[in-house]
Amino acid sequence: MQQIYQRLRLTIILFLVIISLFIFFGIYRPLTKELEHEVLKSYQLITYNKHQVLEEYVMSVRYNAASLSSRSVIRDMLADYLDGKVTFAELKAFTIPRYTDGVAVFEQLRSAARVAIDGRVIHSIGVDESITNFIRWDEKKLVSRYIPEDKLVMVQSPVKKGEQILAYDLIFSDAIPIIAQLEEGLYELTFLQEKRNQEMMVADGRINSYIDSELLEGTIVISTAEPVVFDTVRNLMVNINIRYFLALIIMFITIQFLIVRYIRGFIKTQQRLKAAAEEREKERNRLIEEMNKGFLLLKVGESPPGEFGVYEIVDVNRTFEAMINMEDGMLLGKSLAQIIPMKAGRGIEQMIATMSEGESKQFEYYIDGLECWWQMSAYPPQEGYLAIICEDITGKKSTEAKLKDSEERMGVTLDVTGEGLWDWRITEGMVYHNKRWCTILGLDDSYLAHKMEEFANRIHPDDREQVLKSINEAIESQGEYFSEHRMIRHNGSVIWVVDRGVGVKNSDGKVERMIGSIADITQRKQAQQDLFIEKETFQSTLLSVGDGIIATNVNGRITVLNPVAEELTGWNQQEAIGRNIDEVLRLVHPKTGKPIKWRESVSLKNQPTKGNDNLISLVSRSGKELTIFESIAPIHLPDGEVTGFVMAFKDVTEVFEKQKKIEYLSFHDELTGLYNRRYMEDALHRLDTNRNLPFTIMMLDLNNLKLTNDIFGHELGDSLIKKTAELLGNIFRVEDIVARIGGDEFCVLMPKTSLEVAQAVKERIQNESSLYRVGSVRLSIAVGFAAKTKKVEQIEAVLRDADFNMYQDKQQRRQEVSNAIPKLVTRFLKP
Predict the structure, then answer these.
(1) Cα angle 39-40-41, degrees, rounded to a multiple of 5
(2) Residue 361 in contact with residue 347, Cβ under 8 Å?
(3) How would you list the strands of the sheet with 511-520, edge to edge?
């Protein structure tokens, strides 16, 4: 035991050393490198984000500079100066207030200047005349660069008119705040004038990230001390090392403690296992000896494989001896061929296959000498041996033959009666059936067997659960099974069947088979369904429809009065039954007021009338007059005789009123009462004819409606829209189509209107719009128009041109409106 302990101890130490080396070289070092690599990637991402923040700051300065340079009023004055139309003094006087106002949008502005293309400084803020030294006169586009010594971002923006450069705007923005924000006390941001590839470098205890900057024409360098990035990872790995070695020490001590206990327990366990194995062997031998099936153990001799005589009997039980009428001890040492006269065939092949494949085989075999059937199961318990379990199934075979004969006779009977026969072998999970069953389900006649799951899949999904439940209940209760359900035929069609069956018990009283039949009852089910639908349809028609319905006999006496008819006439069914229809249903002509008698029309007795042709008035029992649609149809017997009439009528008084309102709302804007987009689009194509040429389309847009809504609220915005509609109604002709097609957009279709007339109308709109106001806010409308003067022109193109011209007009007025808004806000808020 001491020797085993020493060997185990050395093995454990060697194992721990190998594990430690594996963890260090296979996990720890790669993990450390991977963590450091991920930290570098994270640092690179941080520096890229800081670069993005700096780039966004530069972009905002560039954007504001470009906006300043694109102001059209100052640009036009510059062009006049360069053309000699105004003096330099006039240019400066005009530019200074507007330029000063324009640069107010810049944050962190150090200085700014506008320099004409002739080199003269028009205006400067915070710098002197030497600012021209910074200008790159050959640049024709917006450029920016960084001035490291002053920590400034300089933007040079050309002032252009077309392709002609008139002047340059120079903006110097203080970069110190944004750099301080990005450095955060941990990083250092520098700038290289030369271009350098984007990369990450670790050198001299610092980590440097080089990022190319297109906007600043150089390279941004963001660096930090190496410990800032790597200290966390390295401290983590030190802690892991300490804990790992502590774990190794604890593991070694624990294993040392457990080894002795393990060895003792191992010896005791082996002793118990040996005793248990011996006991199991005795129990196995006892079970084999007492079981009601024959058992024999064969030893494979050294003769060539495949020869039956090489199987030597080494063990048998009493049941096998009784099966072959041999006494105890007479079988051992003999070959199987001497005891059982087996011919070459399936039995021998199965035993040879069992030995060669090493798998269990089961087969049935007829023993000629004993004139009986055996079911034999062969398996190799170990190499060179073959075990066989035998059961006499002669009685079972005889029963199956009789049952098969009975089933064949039953199948013929059911084929004659039109029913399909099925046989479910529960233990096998297979269902067998006759040809009639195949015919019912639209299958080929050769399809005579399938698995139970396939049968279940042919049951309609809505019925499947209930059918399977009924089958299981019949098996559990050992009673009969009956069901009417739907089945899905092979072509996908659905049929109704009546399915019945009964269980067949085995010798233990347990159901092992179920035999039954199915019959197609689709036609019967369809007839039942048609009758039910006809009955329900009649009942629903008379009592549940939304129309009033009255049925009479041939003499006009009421037989049915539905609830709607009760409500409309004021008579309940109990009072009305048996009365003449003219007494209950008082009809008058809608125009003359003359009573209409039910018998006055011959058509009521022999043919139906059309409800749409029978708009009449009904006077209820209370005297209330309603407008109704009515129709009458006779009730015929199969021979054509009329036995009564059915009248259907509906109150349409409220419907007509709603229909008129709906028709109005479908083509009008609810807020203004003008036509809507739907009506305008329909009228656009309806008026697009030669006789309406020239056909002018005018587009109008209420300026700054969104801004007005944001400042003063939507109520004031709606009032402005209404005022606009009022203005347009006073200006345009009756034959013009004025429509509101969007929130702040209007469209006017002007047939037979020239461009000259449209221009005059536009001027009138813009002149008179200032006279319309809501509070302190005057109307401001952008107007654009276009005309179709030739037949070949597309009206959609004219509509687009009008919209484009309106947009151009809106752009021209936007600056004026923007300047006026602050004044309007002050006036509106002034107490």
Answers:
(1) 90
(2) no
(3) 449-451, 430-433, 420-425, 511-520, 494-505, 480-488
Say how many C-beta atoms besides its own lie within 10 A of residue 581's C-beta.
24
d(Cα 219, Cα 190) in Å, to the nearest integer?
9
For residue 629, the number of C-alpha atoms closer than 13 Å in the C-beta half-sphere is: 12
Query: Residue 350: enclosing H or E segment and its boundaries?
Result: helix 346-357
**Hunting for tokens 């509070």 — which residue is that?**
775
- Confidence at residue 2, expressed as pLDDT on a 0 to 100 scale: 61
Amino acid making up residue 574: Q
Backbone torsions φ then ψ of 232, nearest 5 degrees: -65, -45
Q: Cα separation of 803 and 714, whole Å? A: 25
Neighbours of 746 (CB within 10 A): 26
Structure tokens at 30: 């790669």
Q: Which residues pair with 220 in a beta bridge?
A: 191, 211
Q: Please give the Cα distance from 462 to 459 (Å, whole number).
A: 8
| Alpha carbon distance 202, 230 (integer Å) | 11
* Beta strands 372-379 and 361-367, pairing class: antiparallel
For residue 608, pLDDT over 70 is answered with no
Query: Which secondary structure element, helix H or strand E, spans residue 308, and what is its range?
Result: none
Most confident of 85-94, 149-158, 187-196, 756-765: 756-765
Structure tokens at 479: 């009673």
Element (H, E) at 574: helix 573-576
Phi/psi at 640 (5° precision): 95, -5
Nearest 5 degrees, angle CA 134-CA 137-CA 142? 80
Name the pLDDT band for 589 (thresholds 50, 70, 90): confident
Residue with tokens 């330029």: 99
Q: What is the identity of the amino acid at 84?
A: G
* 778 sits in which H/E element: strand 777-778
- Give tens-digit pLDDT for 116-150: 998 888 888 887 667 778 888 888 899 988 888 88
In this predicted structure, the answer to whether residue 358 has a pLDDT above a threshold of 90 is no
pTM of the model: 0.33
Cα–Cα distance, 480 to 496 (Å, whole number) = 20
Alpha helices (H) along 23-120: 29-69, 72-82, 88-102
CA 349 → CA 301, 330, 355, 357, 363, distances in Å?
17, 27, 10, 12, 10
Distance between CA atoms of residues 309 and 771, nearest Å: 127
The residue type of 579 is R
625 versus 725: which is more confidently predicted? 725
Structure tokens at 521: 């009852």
Contact between residue 39 and residue 235 where contact means Cβ atoms under 8 Å apart: no
CA distance 180 to 581: 98
541: amino acid identity, one letter: T
The β-bridge partners of 374 are 365, 392
Cis amide linkage into residue 158, ω under 30° from 0: no
Domains contained in the chain, CATH given? 4-196 (3.30.450.20), 291-392 (3.30.450.20), 397-520 (3.30.450.20), 529-657 (3.30.450.20), 668-829 (3.30.70.270)
Rounded distance, CA 298 to CA 319, Å? 16
More confident residue, 241 or 668: 668
Going from the C-alpha of 51 to that of each of 71, 201, 214, 704, the distances in angstroms are 31, 17, 11, 38
Closest listed residue to residue 435, CA positions, set 424, 422, 426, 425: 422
Cα separation of 122 and 89, whole Å?
Answer: 9
State yes or no: pLDDT of 761 exceeds 80.
Answer: yes
Q: Are 618 and 626 in contact (CB under 8 A)?
A: yes
pLDDT > 90 in the chain, percent: 18
β-sheet bridge partners, residue 449: 432
